[in-house]
């Protein structure tokens, strides 16, 4: 088992503490949070050991889970990796792209593994179909949430859209060519609703919309590729795959056949992949433990986290040029 500790015991930090404590792959040694009064309450209520300093916690761990506000990510992560400890860090990886680059260099220098908490990669609906997404040419994603003051210290792009940015970058095997985006601040000082159009060098286009001022929640993505349409509902944990193949000469009476303008006939097939229920946060944490134990590449590397942040910041920069 790996000795693990958590930096930051806010809303998400408490969830990570609970899951690390339950995991068979980690031994939870405790946590550190700058708010000593809140730390004392958590220690009394849940029995997790509260450390008096960040350095003391890091020293007691093999793995440190950074769940602090984003603005503190780099400073905390720097302390972790320079101490030679493995790093799990919540998304976005850092507050700035330069910090992400510096963190990559530090992790390589100190020969430690890192994983970024892009939890939608472990969403069972996405995991059920991600291997079927092959060279998509058009992608549409909607991530809508009701207003919650927590998280509004950053743009909706870094708060919500970055989930879809990472998922899309994981399946589109091409570099970003151009980005066009717009964002509007309604309640917060930073944009609360945003739309981005990302064009990749291979011709794929992704259209992303994110809002944190919606009346209902939605987290859906649709992937269109040659002879297939794949839909993922991250919120409801559902997916749908529609495939088209050349129609047989003698289709059965119930076959769905489409004929295009050139007279080519295609048969439509519906596929409902098996979705295995899981706890995505626990799975991402335990997959990192596996990567450490087997000295293999983590599922969401620091490099991938940096790429998602780079695209997110390019979208935000697009707002400023309007």
UniProtKB/TrEMBL annotation:
Gene3D superfamilies: Dihydrodipicolinate Reductase, domain 2, NAD(P)-binding Rossmann-like Domain. Residues 153-217 form the GFO/IDH/MocA-like oxidoreductase domain. It comes from the Bacteria. GO terms for molecular function: nucleotide binding. It comes from Rasiella rasia. Residues 3-118 form the Gfo/Idh/MocA-like oxidoreductase N-terminal domain. PANTHER family: BILIVERDIN REDUCTASE A (PTHR43377). InterPro entries: Gfo/Idh/MocA-like_OxRdtase_N, Gfo/Idh/MocA_Oxidoreductases, GFO_IDH_MocA-like_dom, NAD(P)-bd_dom_sf. Pfam families: GFO_IDH_MocA, GFO_IDH_MocA_C3. This is Gfo/Idh/MocA family oxidoreductase.
């Amino acid at each position: 088992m790996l000795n693990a500790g958590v930096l930051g015991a806010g809303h998400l930090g408490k969830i990570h503490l609970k899951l690390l404590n339950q995991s068979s792959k980690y031994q939870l040694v405790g946590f550190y949070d700058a708010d000593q009064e809140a730390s004392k309450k958590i220690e009394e209520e849940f029995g997790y050991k509260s450390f008096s300093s960040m350095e003391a916690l890091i020293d007691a761990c093999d793995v440190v889970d950074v769940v602090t506000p984003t603005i503190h990510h780099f400073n905390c992560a720097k302390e972790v990796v320079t101490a030679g400890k493995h790093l799990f860090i919540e998304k976005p990886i850092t507050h700035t792209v330069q910090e992400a680059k510096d963190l990559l260099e530090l992790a390589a220098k100190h020969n430690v593994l890192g994983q970024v908490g892009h939890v939608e990669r472990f969403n069972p609906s996405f995991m059920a179909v991600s291997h079927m997404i092959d060279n998509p040419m058009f992608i549409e994603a909607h991530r809508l949430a009701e207003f919650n003051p927590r998280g509004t210290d950053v743009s909706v792009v870094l708060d919500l859209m970055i989930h879809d940015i990472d998922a899309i970058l994981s399946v589109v095997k091409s570099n970003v060519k151009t980005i066009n985006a717009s964002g509007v601040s309604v309640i917060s000082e930073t944009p609360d609703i945003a739309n981005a159009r990302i064009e990749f060098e291979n011709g794929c286009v992704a259209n992303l919309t994110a809002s944190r001022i919606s009346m209902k929640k939605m987290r859906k993505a649709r992937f269109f590729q040659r002879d297939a349409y794949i839909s993922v509902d991250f919120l409801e944990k559902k997916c749908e795959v529609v495939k088209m193949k050349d129609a047989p000469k003698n289709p059965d009476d119930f076959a769905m056949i489409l004929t295009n303008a050139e007279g080519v006939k295609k048969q439509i097939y519906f596929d409902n992949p098996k979705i295995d229920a899981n706890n995505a946060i626990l799975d991402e944490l335990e997959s990192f433990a596996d990567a450490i134990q087997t000295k293999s590449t983590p599922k969401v590397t620091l490099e991938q986290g940096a790429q998602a942040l780079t695209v997110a910041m390019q979208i935000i920069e697009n707002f400023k040029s309007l």
